[in-house]
Automatic annotation (TrEMBL):
GO cellular component: cytoplasm
Gene3D superfamilies: Aspartate/ornithine carbamoyltransferase (3.40.50.1370)
GO biological process: citrulline biosynthetic process; L-arginine biosynthetic process via ornithine
Binding site for carbamoyl phosphate: 64-67, 115, 142-145, 280-281, 325
Record domain Aspartate/ornithine carbamoyltransferase Asp/Orn-binding: where: 161-335
Organism: Nicoliella spurrieriana
Taxonomic lineage from the root: Bacteria, Bacillati, Bacillota, Bacilli, Lactobacillales
Catalytic activity line of the entry: carbamoyl phosphate + L-ornithine = L-citrulline + phosphate + H(+)
UniProt entry keywords in alphabetical sequence: Cytoplasm, Transferase
Keyword check for Cytoplasm: yes
Binding residues annotated for L-ornithine, in chain numbering: 174, 238, 242-243
Entry EC no(s): 2.1.3.3
Subcellular location(s) of the protein: Cytoplasm
Name of the protein in question: Ornithine carbamoyltransferase
Amino acid sequence: MQSQFNFFSNQFHGKSILAETDLTPNEMKYLVDFGLHLKAEAKQNNYTKYLAGKNLALIFEKNSTRTRSAFTTAAFELGANPVFLGKNDIHLSHKESVADTAKVLGSMYDGIEFRGYKQSDVETLAKYSGVPVWNGLTDEWHPTQTIPDLITIKENFGSFDGVKIAYLGDGRNNVAHSLLVGCAMVGIDVAIVSPDELDPADDVVNIAKDYAKQSGAKIEITADLASGLKGANVVTTDVWVSMGEDNWQERIDLLTPYQVNMKALEMTGNLDGKLIVMHCLPAYHDLNTEVGQEVYAKYHLSELEITDEVFNSKYARQFDEAENRKHGIKAMIAATLGNMYIPHL
């Protein structure tokens, strides 16, 4: 029997995904379901070569474990040839403009992934390359984290209906922004629980509220742990100091009350119900990293945004979430570059 996903031509074809807002809510839901489908197929060692013969440029200004591994394995499983281009491999913005680089790469590759700092750079790549461009992370948005996160939520709860997610920590970073908008798009209630100084940007909150009007999602931006965590089915967080930052003392002072620990999970009221914990990784939950040891030596903290107890608890889904990076990215690049038919959504 032919798969419902295995046809020719589709509405996604040629689309760049630079932020969640490049997708409609129905397109976002489709990519989540497609990712779950591809994951189920992979578990049976079934791989449809939607991208056979395609060449993909993977540009990494910022280092990565999950994004690089996910794009590389996703490309191979779809039949494509990925080529890694690190910050020391090309002249992006140094000896050659982003626009000129885009034109060169677009003439040689069928699709481009970009993981770096400026959102304007990934937008310029999309404008001038003539091929689909995918945002693997910028300082503003992280759609290749959101789609796998939504996959993780749906595979645990079966649907998005009646689900509430509480994000604890730095509410104005790219992960929080993307999660806020992505969840609002599909109808998941969202609470961003952070100190007032680290609230998400007003324009991003307004975007999320506009989607929430359509989906019925409830949006809460609060510094109050009890309010934000009440009724949550998903508790998630991110590192307190993002890549390129070094303001440890400030963040520790602000965010220590927002640590994901057992007390925080108890506030959900769902310890014996439907509850999972996510983290986009890497996580500072013990002293088994060089950075963890440096932080401990200077600030005397062995656990930061999440405790080791929670990280290794029955609620933890961060490694499923990490695996789902591959399946979500597979869905995204197959839909935008593969020869498939996807009916109007």
